[in-house]
Specification:
It is a single chain. The chain is an alpha+beta fold. The protein has a single domain, classed as Cation efflux protein, cytoplasmic domain (Alpha-Beta Plaits, 2-Layer Sandwich). Helix content is about 25%, strand content about 30%. The protein has two helices and seven strands. The protein has helices at about 25-40, 90-110; strands at about 5, 25, 45-50, 60, 70-75, 75-85, 115-125. The strands form two sheets. Strands 3, 4, 5, 6 and 7 form a five-stranded mixed sheet that branches. Strand 6 (about 75-85), helix 2 and strand 7 (about 115-125) form a beta-alpha-beta unit. The chain is elongated, with a radius of gyration of 16 Å.
């Protein structure tokens, strides 16, 4: 992303009159926010590697951010694609909508950026043992 996140009008401090610089957030950080939020949604089992050609397609936590792609559009709007592994027996539309809402809320709250599209791709379904 490498775009700057604008500070709150009051700069977050009483009496702040001028910006002291910019805050830049990498795509990887945005991807982590999106992935960690998605993994908290009931019905989401894991993330799925977007390039999916490796032997370990289902991503463990240390590499889970690879299950997301982030694009900054127009300097202020984020588009996010997430590849998820769902648990069988869950409603795909309901889980997908919950992921979209929670990720949008988290990104807007934490970064102050507008979220454009959040596309949830269900790449695999697993059955509980």
């Amino acid at each position: 992303m490498d775009g700057s996140v604008e500070p709150a009008p009051d700069g977050g401090h009483a009496g702040a009159r001028r910006p002291l610089g910019v805050t830049r957030v990498t795509n990887e950080v945005v991807a982590w926010i999106a992935v960690l939020t998605a993994l908290q949604v009931p019905g989401v089992h894991a993330m799925y590697q977007a390039a999916g050609q490796s032997l370990e397609r289902i991503l463990r936590r240390s590499h889970a951010h690879r299950g997301a792609r982030v694009e900054l559009r127009g300097g202020t709007t984020l588009d996010v694609d997430l590849w998820v592994v769902m648990l069988a027996g869950n409603s795909v539309p309901k889980v997908g909508a919950e992921v979209q809402q929670r990720v949008a809320d988290a990104v807007e709250r934490m970064l102050g950026l507008e979220v454009g599209n959040i596309n949830v791709h269900v790449s695999e379904v697993v059955f509980a043992p």
